[in-house]
Amino acid sequence: AAEKVKEGGKDTSKDAVSSKSKILFQDDFSDESYTKENWTWNNVTEEGMELNVLGSGCETYAGEDNWTDYILEAKMKFIESGKNSAGFQVRYSEGNDKLLICYAPGGSNHVFNIKSTGEWSGAKNTRVKKQKFKENQWYQFRIICEDGKTEIYCDDDFIGTIEDDKIPSSGKIGLFAFDNHVAFDDVKVTAIK
Fold it and tell me: In what order do the strands lie in the sheet with 85-92?
């Protein structure tokens, strides 16, 4: 049985959410199901979708601008560490507003940045637990976006909460890497409501 995770009195365990909700998007990057047209940048290998951008950067998006409350689940692995970060983007809009969730390999920091009306700022009201990431190890992420709050889990461990009125209310998902060689796999987005 899946571990029950209760935040704010709600059961947000994987079983509870998946049994009641609609899958908005899913891609495991296999030959049979890889949907190239959904991603703006791609390099599919046996590792999943790799972003090998040592010395530069890349971001890719999938989904719809009208997605509001959803859960993004995906695996991420640092293949070769660079000098910057990699991670996820949620509630990305065509105006380029978004919440950027950054992880630095080998480091113990998480960085949460918001782009709102063209301006970058650090997320306020952020409570996170420090975590180190090793090369060549898959990590399973679950990012819950509901109302103005974003909760982050890694390998079913609660990492933290981000609450900020600048976080866009809807938008696509994204994957990114800046000066890192990473792989992503088993991307799934599930509606909460």
Answer: 57-62, 172-178, 85-92, 98-103, 110-116, 119-122
Task: Give me the residue label for tokens 């790799």.
Answer: 50
H or E element in which residue 17 lies: helix 14-20
Max Cα separation, the chain? 44
pLDDT tens-digit map of 88-112 = 888 888 767 777 777 766 554 566 6
pTM over 0.85: no
d(CA 141, CA 135): 16
Residue 70 is encoded by which pair of tokens? Answer: 């959803």
Among the listed residues 6, 4, 28, 21, the one whose alpha carbon sits nearest the alpha carbon of residue 151: 6
HSE of 3, CA atoms in CB hemisphere, 13 A: 7
Q: With the C-alpha atoms ordered 44, 45, 51, 52, is the resulting torsion angle positive or negative?
A: negative
DSSP letters for 35-49? -GGG-SS--EETTEE
Mark residue 66 as left, alpha or beta (left: phi above 0; alpha: psi -120 to 50; beta: remaining): alpha
Q: What's the pLDDT tens digit per position in 110-152?
A: 666 666 666 666 665 565 666 778 889 999 999 999 988 889 8
